[in-house]
Hints:
alpha/beta, Rossmann fold, 15 helices
Amino acid sequence: xxxRTFLGTLTGGFLAAPLAAGAQQERGAKRVGVLxxxxxxxxxxxxxxxxxxxxxxxxxxxxxxxxxxxxxxxxFVSLATDLVRLNVDVIIAATVPAIRAAxxxxxxxxxxxxxxxxxxxxxxxxxxxxxxxxxxxxAALTFDLVPKRLELFKETIPTLRQIAVLSNxxxxxxxxxxxxTEVAGRTLRLGVRSFEVREAALLDTALGAILExxxxxxxxxxxPLIGSHTEHIADFTKKHRLPSMxxxxxxxxxxxxxxxxxxxxxxxxxxxxxxxKILKGAKPGDLxxxxxxxxxxxxxxxxxKALGLTIPPSLLQRADQVIE
Length: 324
């Protein structure tokens, strides 16, 4: 199944299972809770589709309970408690705040991490080889890639001297990303100034402050809050001719300049393979935390042209995808 199918919206006919048959089948079905923020890669459709590839079909041998924070991380605690009350067989927790909420809510129901940055550094697992407890899943290592992103950004724009960093400081993983950016910036002799967004209502204020600061480029440290406004931020960078570097390739597909990061579709599929193993009897504490092996470099040439930039041919040759 290709990426578009995996992320595509499923038809109403597929979603509607016959009620009588569904009630019969669900009695012996496995129950999977999903604790997520609004995010295309961890949407109900993407998870349903990925689990179906592994032999788990909703209405046949699977019941999905989906809970979204709708962009408010504080809701994760009550949502996690609700999933525990339903006595699901496993909880898929996407993003660090969701994982921590699930861990506070239960020490017995298995938790599979998604979009977790560095689970060992953040204290989500005891070790990568034997995570112990009830939590496991693949590592995203999102912000360990920040130094490489800055290198690529400077290679794209040799005159780069000052960068703005857009981030949500309420997310502990993102705070670590800001620290990584400051360290890498000093190494590359780049001035780094952080602009924080703690809630969606403050996004335009932060963007206005960035505009006044007149940086040479913008590094976006995306999380569910900022990620839910990806297109708006990309439109802002195009309108004001501000080159942007992202960690999520989807941002480049909607107008960002360049992105470097893990393959998020494969990351989520990897998480679902953990779910499959646990539903078949594996203990989460015995399943090692996998490191990402596939990374993407995506460049939008249309955006580069609009910004008056010429992308070095050597960089284009290394790109996994070039959008023209």
